[in-house]
Amino acid sequence: MGIVAEDDALMQGDSRLGGSVRPGGRTARTRAAVFDAAIAELGEKGFAGTNLEKIAGRAGVALSTLYRRWGNLTGLLQDLVDELTLDLSPPDTGSLDGDLAALGRLILQLHRHPVHRPWMDAVTAAAVHDPAARAVLSRTIMARIQRAAGVVEAAAARGEIPVDTDAADVIRMLAAPFYYRMYVSGEPLTDDLPERVAGAVAAAVRAGTLRRTTP
Amino acid sequence: MGIVAEDDALMQGDSRLGGSVRPGGRTARTRAAVFDAAIAELGEKGFAGTNLEKIAGRAGVALSTLYRRWGNLTGLLQDLVDELTLDLSPPDTGSLDGDLAALGRLILQLHRHPVHRPWMDAVTAAAVHDPAARAVLSRTIMARIQRAAGVVEAAAARGEIPVDTDAADVIRMLAAPFYYRMYVSGEPLTDDLPERVAGAVAAAVRAGTLRRTTP
């Protein structure tokens, strides 16, 4: 969560990374083939059952190329998910409620995305016990929290909420109910969830909670 | 989360299920041995690497006894976690803020509990891809949500919050940031988290958000 997409780019439901691969160029084609193979491997075997060798074989690319470019599996997976979300820029609807709801809709879209979802499932399951998967997931989520926090800082700059609101904590409160349903309670993510959660979190912030604590 | 413990019972850090096993009686001893073996197996091998046969062998109990009493691994794990939390009753501090903070402290205790935490980790990791583990986790979490929701209904009955507040959704908003840190962002669960999250959620509810929607 935390990064906003053009609906078109995210929702086109294309297993070839939603058109993010630049057409033409051998490097770009190799990259696309490796990412496709990695996604297929992850989907079939999960994080623990996949390695660079299997991905290279499936992609028809030399293993040495993968080692040179990514170093290891976690490097490749990090690059894959960065590419998926790199072009996404934060919302700017003019209100905290609107921006938080837009971020919530993005989480919903990532949850339904044909590439992001299997990536997220595999890395989340593995992260419980595997430090390398944990590092990939934490790094990705922390970067998204920091990026999305801009909408809270903008609301503070507009005078909408207290200036010492803890922007990162607001984003965590917003994102958490989505992931709680996905991975803990196992309940469906309904279409009304972004507005509902955004409304609750914005009300909490306007009431003066979630301030920065002095370290 | 969602069920409140006597600190003593939860915090005694005893791998034999915190003293919940009734002393004396062959049945009780068998049960304790099987639960201890199940926890050790789960901790070492995870959900996918464990089965009733291995647990029976480790416990020194006939496999037929395990089949007769629990049917399968998920039945045994469900019984195990129910026993861990069965004696816990909801908080009653007299205010929604206080009750939600008490529930938050319970989640923190379960997170640090020597038996509950490995159980939760194993089942959460497995639930991403395994429908049987998903069923155990969902059933457990939904039962806790329903039970904890009583503190929200009590606050509504006291006139503290709107009568049509969605009690289950309030509990989800409270619990989610804990599990988000555990399994998604990988950030530590700090001691100030229960008060902080409870304060935010209670403020959101007092502001009139998280109402029941007409079906």
From TrEMBL, chains A, B:
The keyword Mitochondrion does not apply. Keywords: DNA-binding, Transcription, Transcription regulation. InterPro entries: Homeodomain-like_sf (IPR009057), HTH-type_TetR-like_transc_reg (IPR050109), HTH_TetR (IPR001647), Tet_transcr_reg_TetR-rel_C_sf (IPR036271), TetR_C (IPR011075). GO terms for molecular function: DNA-binding transcription factor activity; transcription cis-regulatory region binding. Residues 51-70 bind DNA. Coiled coil: none annotated. Residues 28-88 form the HTH tetR-type domain. The keyword Transcription regulation applies. This is TetR family transcriptional regulator.
